[in-house]
Amino acid sequence: MPIDPEFEENRDVVGTHSPDNGGEHEVRGPVDEPERLGIHGTVVAVDFDACIGDGACLEDCPVDVFDWVESPGHPASDRKADPAREDDCIGCYLCEDVCPVDAIKIQY
Ligand code: F3S
Ligand code: ZN
Prior knowledge:
It is a single chain. By secondary structure, this protein is of the alpha+beta class. The chain has one domain (7-102): Alpha-Beta Plaits, CATH 3.30.70. The protein is built from three helices and seven strands. The chain has helices at 7-10, 56-60, 94-98; strands spanning 13-17, 25-28, 39-40, 44-47, 67-70, 79-82, 104-106. It has a five-stranded antiparallel β-sheet with strand order 1-2-3-4-7, with no helix packed on it. A hairpin with a 3-residue loop joins strand 3 and strand 4 (44-47). The longest helix has 5 residues, at 56-60. It is globular. The structure holds FE3-S4 cluster and zinc ion. Zinc ion (ZN) binds next to loops.
């Protein structure tokens, strides 16, 4: 399942995530670890339950928005692309284009 483009209306904020090398961003549920991890970020939103850990977004982002976070026990992959620095996004939409499972939605 790709990320829901209407996720801001359809998914409730259940918390925030403050990664080591980034800014605080919203997490939308449902979250039930380790199987369901929700959506991280708002300007750069990554559906962790859709992400298969492909890594194209990390490789191609020109401003280094993403960091890996470990997700042991998740059915789709054991690592996820966290939008740690979503505030740095320049709206190029490259990550949306390269993600093979459409796990990313940019709202720039
Ligand atoms: Fe995940 Fe797609 Fe990036 S599968 S690692 S969000 S390219
Ligand atoms: Zn996060």
